């Protein structure tokens, strides 16, 4: 039996929502799984024997145990760019593997598999459940997002691994910085719910992860500044970067994307994807 599944990209953190908040993006990873005599991974036409060290093998094993699978993956999500590619791959592979053995996956089990592999729940929640999700200590909830908000992405070609980005974070933060972060999170959540430009303007300037990572990707900080100057209501690192996510109105979206494209030049791409209102399928 061949099982198939797909899962969307996601943008984590969105500024002050470090490791707790993420938005599902309408870019997808597709996977087909079929029982085999050994682990086999094929992606974009290139195949190789899999091992227990491979993320996709670990995702399948967590779903169905040590039953070897041939896994065929088609991923349209840019990798190591802060768009939740690994979470989407894990969700699609686990769901496809379950279907390959005749079991229909459930959301909660998939979320636990992906969050366990990721080590944090934000991207896992968005890729499994879709929409704007908040997750903490095992609790996941869909949050409202103003219908008039549009998303613009600026995706540099240069990769930035999650491991390197996390290594840049300080071991502790000052009380004042933590207090400001809590305030920004409140402004962000209400701003995303209502589309209130004044609230969203106060949500920027994260000190917990964006500021410590600034030296890893100076272009990301410049893109955020360019987006806001062009009329974006909010702009932030997408996940661990270097991608920037900007929230705009319909009227400003073209100008924001144009400004980001000009700054990137030939060093990246821009796009304006929809929000993925549903998660894996």
Task: Please describe what this structure looks like.
The protein is α+β, with helices and mostly antiparallel strands. Helix 1 (55-64) packs antiparallel against helix 3, helix 2 packs across helix 3 and helix 9 packs antiparallel against helix 10 (250-264). The chain has 2 domains: 3-142, 2-Layer Sandwich (Ribosomal Protein S5, domain 2); 145-271, Alpha-Beta Plaits, CATH 3.30.70.890. The mean pLDDT is 94. The chain is built from 10 helices and 11 strands. The longest helix is centred in the middle third of the chain and has 20 residues, at 175-194. Helices cover 38% and strands 27% of the residues. It has helices at residues 55-64, 85-100, 107-118, 122-129, 162-167, 175-194, 197-201, 210-213, 218-229, 250-264; strands spanning 3-13, 17-35, 40-43, 46-49, 69-75, 132-136, 139-143, 150-156, 234-237, 244-248, 268-271. Strands 1, 2, 3, 4, 5, 6 and 7 form a 7-stranded mixed sheet that branches. The chain has a 4-stranded antiparallel sheet with strand order 9-10-8-11. The protein is globular, with a radius of gyration of 19 Å.
Major β-sheet, in short? 7 strands, mixed
Please state roughly what percent of the residues sit in beta strands, choosing from under 5%, 5-15%, 15-25%, 25-35%, 35-45% or over 45%.
Answer: 25-35%
| Spatial gap, N to C terminus | 18 Å
How does the helix and strand content classify structurally?
alpha+beta
User: SSE string, helix = H, strand = E?
Assistant: EEEEHEHHHEEEHHHHHEEHE
Number of domains: 2
Q: What's the level 1 CATH class of the largest domain?
A: Alpha Beta
- pLDDT averaged residue by residue: 94
Which CATH architecture of the largest domain is right?
Answer: 2-Layer Sandwich
User: Number of helical segments?
Assistant: 10
Per the principal axes of the C-alpha atoms, what is the gross shape?
Answer: globular
Low-pLDDT windows of residues: none
Range of helix content: 25-40%
Radius of gyration: 19 Å
Q: How many β-strands, per DSSP?
A: 11
- CATH topology annotation of the largest domain: Ribosomal Protein S5, domain 2
